[in-house]
Amino acid sequence: MKFRNYISRALTNLSGWTSNRKIIVIESDDWGSIRMPSKTVYEKCLTAGYRVDANPYERYDSLESEEDLEILFEVLRSYKNNKGNHPIITANCVVANPDFEKIRSSFFSNYYFETVIETFKKYPKHHNCFELWNVGNNEGLFHPQFHGREHLNVSLFMDALQTKDADVLFGFDNYMPGCISKDPKRKGNYYVEATYYKSEIDKEEKINFFVEGLQIFEKLLGYQSKSIIPPNYTWCRDWDKAVLENGVQYFQGIRKMREPNVLGKNVYYNYFLGKKNIYGQLYLIRNCSFEPSLTNSKDVVSDCLREIEIAFALNKPAIISSHRVNYIGSIDLENRNTTIANLNDLLSKILKKWPDVEFMTSDALGDLIFNDISKVQN
Q: Between 296 and 91, whose confidence is greater?
């Protein structure tokens, strides 16, 4: 298995932009989304027969608390490279969540959302989280970029509520965006696949939601998001121009991205680092993983270091995937404690092995690649 992973990472790094600079980007998705609302709801799900313990996102993930953010920032602050820069998280955020009370008041006839700031205010240990996002950004620790308006497929969610789907109604009553099913054939909570569509009308609705989210992001954060990561690595290339018009120049992602079509079938497209689309937007490709909550590996630090080493050996930046779920402690405190210990170990070993390493955000890396390619072309 490790040999196969080695070959896979090597293939990911073969094509595209190269540099002998040792650059590390840490991309972390899902900040701001609700997922599992609380430990109480988690236990209620188990009692009701929902195997939320079998899916890491339902098992560990939740809206980040002030404590989650402060502990993460403390670790990042404690390390600097030889230029005095801290490791920085590219925090891919959603800017809204469903407004459950308004949806209920409409008798499920209309969908309503609230901004992430409003969501934070409804949770007991989260009131200052948006301020902490800004603190982290100002200190060069936590740099928000756009992930979606909400991490929810609105049409699927509303259809399920209107047809009185028992699983989704249970989730709704417990302020969950969707729900896993009791049917063992249906894996995970597919209601979180925000950009998936099955009709032309649905396809247009999805990009309208996404663009609205980009505009809310700019209003809340005070700047446009230059990069995005499509939820669940699902994106339609017909939408590229619409997001370009709202400031998006770079797509985060993986080597193989999914595009739905109205026939219900998926098409997969291969990308490489620095590839341009017809509008001049660039693709950034994740080639390393630090996901303690999502893996069965007993040595995630060594695994990640090995992937970084492969990237650097092939003159590629190390773009590390590390989802929010790893850093959340409200459902299971040990989950966060384990990751923080591993993160300490990883950062210490990175700086010891590569003292000239450069920590960079996704959009900064995109700028570097864009400028480098432009020089060559000119």
A: 91
